[in-house]
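G., the chain you wanted modeled:
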Amino acid sequence: MVSLRGKKERLGAAAALIVALASTFAHGRALPQPREAVFAVESELAPTSIDRLVEQPLVVDSASTYRASEKAFADGALRPADYWASEEGVGHFSEWSKSTKHDFIADWALGKANEWTIVMGNEGGDLDSMASALSWAYHLSHSTLHHPQPRKAVALLQTPLDALDLRPENKLALDNSKMSSGHRDLLTIDELPAHPRAVAKQIRGIVLVDHPLPLSVWADAEVVGIIDHHADRGVAPHANPRIFETVASCTTLVARQMLDELEAIPGPPDGPGEYHMPHELLELMLDAIAIDSDGLNPKKSTKTDADVSRRVLERSNWHNESLSQVMDRLDKELGEAKRDLSHLSVRDLLRRDWKGDVVETTDTATPAIHLGFASTPVSIDDQIERTERKTLKDWFRVERRWTAEIRADVSICLNKYKDHKGNKVREIVLTVRHDHRINRTQADDLFRVLSSALNESFDLEEHPKMKHHAGKKRRQMVWVHGRKDAGRKVVRPIVERAVKSWISP
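Predicted structure as tokens:
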């Protein structure tokens, strides 16, 4: 009789082969294996044990995970001979983006990383983060072109290459902006030439857009700028610019700052005048603002969003159309793409919009916890139908494989959808592991603490499928509630506070 382990090994090998072949055809290269997930923020630590549901993940040494160069990808595979010369993207914006990616990687090898500023959005990688990072990096590099020492800036997407197309709206926006279909003009986290911790120590600094504080792997980098529409967390008080303002889209704030500075550049003979602003970049900005504001819906947007959108539109190729026409069209097109997730597996749904980091506890004897949040617009019932056995147990099996890859201790999946009556429903799925930084006793206690914190904050009901699932014994739970505003911005602070104040038994 074939052992369960043997079956798993063969299935895993087959799956890996399929992924590798698909990646090769899609991108002309072999992508890094998913288990080399870039959000494993403590890759140097080996797991102490592993649950029987999954095989022990390969913990890749940081030096071998991040080693992209001009001639090779991060996984060591050689780039095609025409990788940098091939013109997949056809616009000026694509050419600039690919050129800065190349120059940054080349300068790292030459020991000149200290000349570079990295502009990064959050690790969720939504359209707002991507557009904000690309826009501000473009501005930093072009606004100083005539300075004695022009500033070198590159946009970093804190998502791996093979996850970029898990957001169909991003793919559509990039296609519309004439960017490369293979994303060779974008610097993703797995294309860094060294581990983020090593990069952080060498570069000039980082600019945060669409998030208020850096991930722990960037702790050694100087934060030289922040532009964000979330709550101010007090990081880098002397950063310049340092902008926090409540608007629908962070791109609104980035675009306003760009245009203000651009229009302030003196023209000849006193100065060089305005630099070229490609229409592809302007239209990418409008894409991001439209999807985050529901087409400038007054219930979701501000006057600032509308005013800045109008300024951007006047410079774009759509300047002959009205603002309402453009924003309505973009919201409809991008919204339809964003909702088209029927082809995504459970694993892809989880990593499509994942945000996580290591949270330090206040008790010095209590270990830090790697905490992560997934956000999906798909019900747990629908997700269960996408598993092999169509059971809740199988859903948690997929979840555990994913969190094993990224070395997360606690994962929370937040689902928001409409039921058959059109009512908005929210779900919270909590899982606590015992095989990374904490043991079984600690995991049991942390599960209890987090469950209590969530129950105190929301009117939670156990999902009907929990009746036939021994979830509490496995530290797994699915709740349903009706609080409309309880997205990640509300739930995450509650859970983080509970983790920080937790005292290990």
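Confidence is low (pLDDT under 50) at residues 1-64.

Shout if anything looks off.
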